[in-house]
């Protein structure tokens, strides 16, 4: 059947595919509705307009039994696919590779006894509905059970909490209550989970499944690597990945062994750590929105992870001032050290030049930054403010609660301040 569409520039629905479907153009996108019972045995030939189809609704097609790559390969822009109240018994593992933009898949009320785990791995699929299918309580639904229990928010399964499968007696049971312990048969191992390298080094990584009852297919996912690599099969069924002349660009990259069968899949990752001397990528000042703190924020590369220290005006900070700041840091997703020294805002004794020193076994890097605060008040204080003296000459005081240094102590406090300093 070849598609014939009338009125492509309007939103007026019209018969197409020899009257089997209704086609409607909406804003340059083609929506196709095929609900006349028994008119389709396979996906209709949409002709040259197939690249414009973004939504396809099929219903009441008792002769439609398979969704596979051939079924969808001409629909590269399809975002919504609904196949309901039909006789689909098979969804192939590669069905979504033909429609990489598919976000919404509704397969309600078909005859599916199992569903491929590849649906759960699609980066674009956001909604999946499987209501009214006779899914079997077998290893083939374990990935779906795992997906529902993970409470992830990338893929929504319609009525996931009440999704059921049929036991050996034909009774429906919620997936959350089914125990599928007999499915733990695919055992996969990698030779290392983390490796430290110097630039120019080579490394060999092995992925194997020698002790599995189910023999899976193996592959290495290496799309993030920039270094030269070779992948080869080993006689014992293992898969060898050799990375040569490692570069700094591959620091903190994951390479993943992917083992899969029609039942399930396993992913095991190896993290590459490429050793290099510290390098301070940035050191900037950031003030919090509530004006309570100023952050001397840094981003430091280096492996092993650098240690950071601070100097204030060229010397280690005085112990008694430690209550006026706090330090924080974290490991970024790129394998760098991110953090900062959080200074209480407008404490004038914290003004000056700060030096950040980042050190590891391979070297050191240094960066400087200057801090100054706009003073709110620089005149004499009254006794009511109860300023506390900060030096012997009582020429400056710290005002509790305001974290601000007064340039001159109030006259009534001079005598008591001098006595306190002598103690």
Automatic annotation (TrEMBL):
Answer whether the UniProt record assigns the keyword Nucleotide-binding to this protein: no
What InterPro entries does the record tag this protein with?
Ig-like_dom (IPR007110), Ig-like_dom_sf (IPR036179), Ig-like_fold (IPR013783), Leu-rich_rpt (IPR001611), LRR_dom_sf (IPR032675)
Ig-like domain: which residues?
278-372
Q: Which residues cross the membrane?
A: none
What superkingdom heads the lineage? Eukaryota
UniProt keywords, alphabetically: Disulfide bond, Leucine-rich repeat, Repeat, Signal
Q: What is this protein called?
A: Ig-like domain-containing protein
What lineage, starting at the top, does this entry show? Answer: Eukaryota, Metazoa, Spiralia, Lophotrochozoa, Mollusca
């Amino acid at each position: 059947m070849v598609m014939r569409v009338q009125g492509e520039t309007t939103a007026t629905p019209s018969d197409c595919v020899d009257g089997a479907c209704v086609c409607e153009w909406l804003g340059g996108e083609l929506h196709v509705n095929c609900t006349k019972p028994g008119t389709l045995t396979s996906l209709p030939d949409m002709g040259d307009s197939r690249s414009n189809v973004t939504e396809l609704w099929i219903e009441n097609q008792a002769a439609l039994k398979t969704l596979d790559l051939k079924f969808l390969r001409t629909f590269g822009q399809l975002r919504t696919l609904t196949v309901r109240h039909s006789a689909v018994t098979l969804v192939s593992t590669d069905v979504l590779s033909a429609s990489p933009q598919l976000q919404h898949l509704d397969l309600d009320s078909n005859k599916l006894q199992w569903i491929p785990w590849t649906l759960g791995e699609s980066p674009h699929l956001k909604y999946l509905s499987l209501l009214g299918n006779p899914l079997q309580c077998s290893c083939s639904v374990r990935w779906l059970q795992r997906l529902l229990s993970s409470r992830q928010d990338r893929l929504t399964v319609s009525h996931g909490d009440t999704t059921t499968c049929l036991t050996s007696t034909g009774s429906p049971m919620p997936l959350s209550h089914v125990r599928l312990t007999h499915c733990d048969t695919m055992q996969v191992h990698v030779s290392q989970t983390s490796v430290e390298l110097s630039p120019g080094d080579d490394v060999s990584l092995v992925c194997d499944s020698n002790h599995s009852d189910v023999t899976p297919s193996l592959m290495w996912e290496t799309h993030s690597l920039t270094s030269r690599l070779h992948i080869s099969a080993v006689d014992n069924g293992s898969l060898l990945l050799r990375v040569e002349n490692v570069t700094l660009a591959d620091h903190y990259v994951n390479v993943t062994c992917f083992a899969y069968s029609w039942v399930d899949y396993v992913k095991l990752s190896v993290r590459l750590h490429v050793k290099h001397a510290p390098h301070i990528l940035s050191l900037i000042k950031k003030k919090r929105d509530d004006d309570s703190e100023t952050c001397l924020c840094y981003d430091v590369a280096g492996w092993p992870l650098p240690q950071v220290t601070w100097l204030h005006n060229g010397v280690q900070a005085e112990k008694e001032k430690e209550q006026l700041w706090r330090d924080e840091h974290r490991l970024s997703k790129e394998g760098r050290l991110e953090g900062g020294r959080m200074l209480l805002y407008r404490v004038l004794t914290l003004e000056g030049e700060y030096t950040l020193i980042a050190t590891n076994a391979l070297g050191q890097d240094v960066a400087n930054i200057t801090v100054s605060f706009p003073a709110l008040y620089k005149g004499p204080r009254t006794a009511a403010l109860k300023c506390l003296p900060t030096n012997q000459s009582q020429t400056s005081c710290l005002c509790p609660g305001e974290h601000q240094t007064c340039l001159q102590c109030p006259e009534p406090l001079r005598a008591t301040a001098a006595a306190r300093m002598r103690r």
